[in-house]
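Subject: for your reference before the review

Hello V.,

The reviewers asked for a structural picture of the protein, and I figured it would be easier to keep everything in one thread rather than splitting it across files. Below is the amino acid sequence we used in the manuscript, unchanged from the supplementary table.
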Amino acid sequence: MTGHLKKREPDFVILFTTVTLLLVGLVMVFSASAIIEGQRQGDIYFQLRRQALWAVIGFAGLLFFSRYDYWKLRRWTNLFLLANLLLLLAVFVPGLGFEAGGAQRWIRIGGLTMQPAELTKVAMVLFASAYLSRKEVRIQNFLEGVFPVLAVLSVFFLLILRQPNLGTAIAIAGTTSVIVFVAGMPLRQLAVAVLAGVPLLGYLMISAPYRLERLLSFRDPWADPLDTGFQVIQSFYALGSGGLFGAGLGRSRQKLFYIPEPQNDFIFAIIGEELGFIGASAVLFLFLLLLWRGFKVALQARDVFGSLLAAGFISMIGLQTLVNVAVVTGSIPVTGTNLPLISAGGSSLFVTMCGIGVVLNISRYIKAD
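And here is what came back from the structure prediction:
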């Protein structure tokens, strides 16, 4: 469908912002992990090498999808959805899946490990965008329009929740909600769906003891400063000691065995401590710039499928960023959500960069300004 259109160059601002955030991530992953990995692995470059390898793989994915006609992705939607379902089930198969940190989220393929839940983000964006952009689908009709998408989402949501990985499950549900909203779901139906989900979310928060502990520690982290409130309190210390200009790159104290795995979910606290309010604000500005240009591509896409795809992938990045920063600043209870393009984690980085590659491809066919 897009083959006859005159192609443009990919959106330079999106590409530049992505590369900048990626480089910031590599620097901060090294800064946050060097001392810990020096003692744990005897190699201060351990995390940096892993992240750099995934950055190269992710950039290859970005380049591929920025050139691969996004309309052709429709033909792979159901196959990718099925493959992702099998990978999620493989997580629970002995010998394939393995447990780490009390969660069964990973599978090992060769020398690499991956989280199939990260691929679910792509699978749901593709499926929801492909289904809701079909001309015969009447989005105003709940059973014909939105219900099939919600039914598929429920299956994946429950499988990811079983790992357990509530943060990723909520992020996928939030991204899917953005897609159905952009597709034209009536606000009344959307409001009913959101209100129906509130009791479920409340139940999930209190049904597992560790989630209930996180919820209680969110109300008062200092009530249990050595256990459930420990991470958030250390994050506060990091952000507070950073001041306006920061302690300087590499000079964080909270990364010295205070914040557990500081290169992961709480890396924004290290950014705030080492680069200060100005540095942390600059990172957030880059994310806002990426979101603005991405949603602009979604608004100017030449077809509904492209518009929904761009909105889905960009909202995926935006929601993860919002949740991560909210956790680090103590605005919401702790949940395992990393900072896109910056936190250590190969699967997340690869998926994010492939998604940005699709958005770049869509930007080559946008309507003229």
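For the response letter, the relevant points are probably these. The CA atoms of residues 34 and 44 lie 4 Å apart. The first helix runs from residue 12 to 40.

Happy to draft the paragraph if you're swamped.

O.
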